[in-house]
Amino acid sequence: MKLNKKFLVILSIALLIIFYFSRLAPTIYLHNNTNKDLYIYSMQHTGSMEPTLEELQQLKRINVIRPNEQISLPVSISYSEDSELFSKWKIGSQSGNGGSIIALINDSKGVCALEVFIQENSIEVIDKEAIYCAQKVLISQKTIGDQIVE
């Protein structure tokens, strides 16, 4: 009987830890609503200084989203202060037209999850419901080509 109680306590703690760590970070989902591949470049850094060499290395990892597919951007909450997630995309090729978003990651403003729908000439951002997150995400800027859009 004592062994079952210990097992249940350990199992409960393990499940709480898994739930806790899986829901801390906010999530940004990028949807490719074009008929071409999207080439995604992303970098997260603290907003108070220039990016470090390690942060710039993140831009070398290119994600490709096929038409009508989606990916979730990795958002780290290991930063001790507010940070920014910069994501840029090219449509059709790595030198094609594209756009970008800058998202603020912080403790108080924003939502736990966002969906970003990317079309050839527009971006639509929709808040996605989530139960809990330790930090939140807020889009601070969107661009299509070189033009900032609302």
Overall, the morphology is globular
Number of helices: 2
Question: Helicity level, as a percent range?
Answer: 10-25%
| N to C succession of SSEs | HEEHEEEEEEEE
Q: How would you describe this protein?
A:
A hairpin with a 2-residue loop joins strand 9 (136-144) and strand 10. The chain has 2 helices and 10 strands; from the N terminus they run H-E-E-H-E-E-E-E-E-E-E-E. A 6-stranded antiparallel sheet has the order 3-2-5-6-9-10. The protein has helices at residues 2-22, 53-57, and strands spanning 27-32, 38-46, 62-65, 70-73, 83-91, 98-106, 113-118, 123-128, 136-144, 147-149. By secondary structure, the protein is an alpha+beta fold. The protein has one domain (26-149): Sandwich (Immunoglobulin-like), CATH 2.60.40.
